[in-house]
Amino acid sequence: MSNGNFGAEFWFTDIVDAEFEIPEVLSVTPSNPTRPTYQNSHHKTVDAHTYEGEALLEPGTLTVQINYLSGSDVDLKLLAMLNYKSPKPYRSVHNAGATKRKISGTAILTGYAPGAMPITGKQEATLTFQASGAAVHAANS
Hints:
Mean pLDDT: 92
Number of helices: 1
Structural class: mainly beta
């Protein structure tokens, strides 16, 4: 049985190393690490190509869907973070039964994409982060 996700949080670190919560989170998609491979076939390989796994994992990307709040403090921080090239700490907090768990690591904000501006309803934005290094899964403390 899976956990209900209501109450998820996402935190990022700004240019002056202050952690801030990104408000109005609608969804968080954690990074999905993958193991790259390389082909090690040679002229005496038979039947099919052979492969080996690379030593380092590709940490993947993570996305956060939010309600877009144009001109808000967080909007301005996120726009500034698009110009910052070095990885910054992040953490997402989610339900885990009767407790909370977190996924933390470092990432670079690579995309901040406000969606359509509908006549009625709300505007949303998608944040895309490139994870840098391995994520840590632990109890939220």
